[in-house]
Amino acid sequence: MNVKKVKEKLSRPWVAVNLLLLIVFLAMVTVHIKVEPVNLDELLSIGNDVDSKNLCDSPECITLSHELLNYQDPSVDPCVDFFQHSCGRFHEQSVSESRLQKKKHILRKQIREFLHKIQNSTSKSENLMKLVFDKCEASKKTSNDNYKISRDAIHDVFNDIKKIGAWPLLDKNWDGSKFDLNEMLSNLVKLGATNLGLFQLDFRILTEGKFVRIAPTLGSIVHNSTMISMISEILEANGVQPDSEEISKEFEEYSSLQMKLAKYQSSGKLSISLPGVRSINFSSLITEMIHPSRVSKIFGKIRVVTSEHPLFFKSNETESDVRREFPRASLRVFMRNFVDKGNRDGVKKLTEELKKNTLEMIQDTENLAPPVKESMLKKVEAIKVTIGYPDHFDPPGTLDKEFENFDLDSTDSYYRIFQKLNRLRSEQQMEFIAGETPISPIKEVLKVNANYKRSKNALTVFAPFLDDPFFDITYPDYVNLFFSGFLIAHEIGHSVDANGLGYDENGKPMDGIRLEHVTEYGKQGQCLVDQYDNYDDPVYGKKMNGTHSINEIIADWVGHEVTWRAYKKMDTSKMLSLIGLKDINMDQLYFRVQSLLFCRERDTISLEETLKDVYPTDNFRVNGAYARVCGGVQLSGYITYESGEEV
Ligand SMILES: [Zn+2]
């Protein structure tokens, strides 16, 4: 888009009320408000005159100024190509492909460095992480072969095999009639195993709640020959002469049983009951997964579902690393050591403000049918917000308390450590299923991300987002609003995107507001789809799919609209300015700072891959969003948000 076109389009008003009209596809009347064109030269010439004592000179602000000044390509006219103007020299300045990637690398390094340095911490979880980390490092140095068992582990594995039950290979006088399947399975569970060969126990979150699931096992990926040599090695090291012929024979039987089992296909459905297999005591297996001291407290709260599989129900057919192991402890390390304490509260406050502005925006939308408006307001109002981690973990010591029943010893073998961790994870899963803790122990909590879950009407801002370069208490408030505010408002936007609309404030599907209405009322929505369909991307050309990306486009739109609203209410006159940016006025800074979120190297992935992604290209997320002309709605770079102000 060139300046002339921009000026022409300025005579068309940007009507904020049309935003939701588009989103809900229930527009009845289009409101047109005439707005006087804004003089481009006048706007571009406004500078923010500041003296040096009003500059934000925290390291975080200086880094931000550095990014704004060095990623830009001032030779490109912002009215012609805003993306290139803001991000044109990103590739020369950053070794990461995007700012998000950069944060991910730094996060990994922060935890790694922390684990190297930590000595005799007063925190139990930190000491446990350190111990596991050192073991991992040591084992990495001794062997690169994943299937090779370390010397000290061989003994532990052997002892565990004996613990599980008698084994014909070890015991020449093995008596099949004395074999107790339940006892063996129960011993396996005690060790922390959840895949029990014949079936597995895992965990499912369904709309009805959280459940332990009994399901068929997934096929083993370890090749027989690898297993055979592993078993031989263990036997030999423990003084038993392996009979390779017998081992092979047993393996053949094992393989044929596996093949037999694989023939029975699951219906994919789940049944809220225990399997109809009387020979296995499933309840006692489930009890074994709970820490013994907690059985009486939580067993009654555990619910079970079973895969509708012929194995369990009779049918007509007849018969990484440390971070992954310690997600919550890593979270604790990150929050305690790398995130400023005020940041979490700051983001909390910001989120509330954005919610309020979203509600206002819906309220101001004149063309919504009253019941629709009401249901949308109710929904946004009810969004459950989690910032960084659930409040449950806020009291000091809560995360450490999770490890009070858990001990590792520095003499433990690598095998023993992971066996104990598996056991701990089962116990923590059971606490989660019983509703005693708010997040699953396997949930990755250190994502550089924020998300909105439709089924729960819940917004989560993950901890790494509470940190620079997205949020920082030393940033002037407007910077935090432009960055984090946009990302959070984008997620709120998903509650009212084309999919989100069909769900109520509790995440239940609703009749009434459905996508079917798109064809009838979706003229405006169609305009957004068309805009991306016709977008001439500098890398891929006019090959984009607006229908596929419509939800992300809508979410971005809400993100811009809501942050713009909040910004316009903000008194920025007393806030610190950014170093080296005195030639850019506050409105311009809004666009420049937000574009930084999308600065990245030139896309190198194929068109096919790009089209699979639900996100529009980063180029579109800047240039498309700022130059949007849809039935009277126009956001255009430096200029048109000005006219939005008058609506
Ligand atoms: Zn999104």
Automatic annotation (TrEMBL):
Record carries keyword Membrane: yes
Domain of life the protein comes from: Eukaryota
GO molecular function: metal ion binding; metalloendopeptidase activity
Membrane-crossing segments per the record: 12-33
Domain named Peptidase M13 C-terminal: residues: 449-627
Pfam families reported for this sequence: Peptidase_M13, Peptidase_M13_N
Protein keywords: Hydrolase, Membrane, Metal-binding, Metalloprotease, Protease, Transmembrane, Transmembrane helix, Zinc
UniProt xrefs under InterPro entries: MetalloPept_cat_dom_sf, Peptidase_M13, Peptidase_M13_C, Peptidase_M13_dom_2, Peptidase_M13_N
Keyword Magnesium: no
GO term, biological process aspect, one: proteolysis
Cofactor: Zn(2+)
Residues in Peptidase M13 N-terminal domain copies: 78-196
Stated family: Belongs to the peptidase M13 family.
Protein name, per record: Peptidase_M13 domain-containing protein
Species per Swiss-Prot/TrEMBL record: Caenorhabditis elegans
Lineage: Eukaryota, Metazoa, Ecdysozoa, Nematoda, Chromadorea
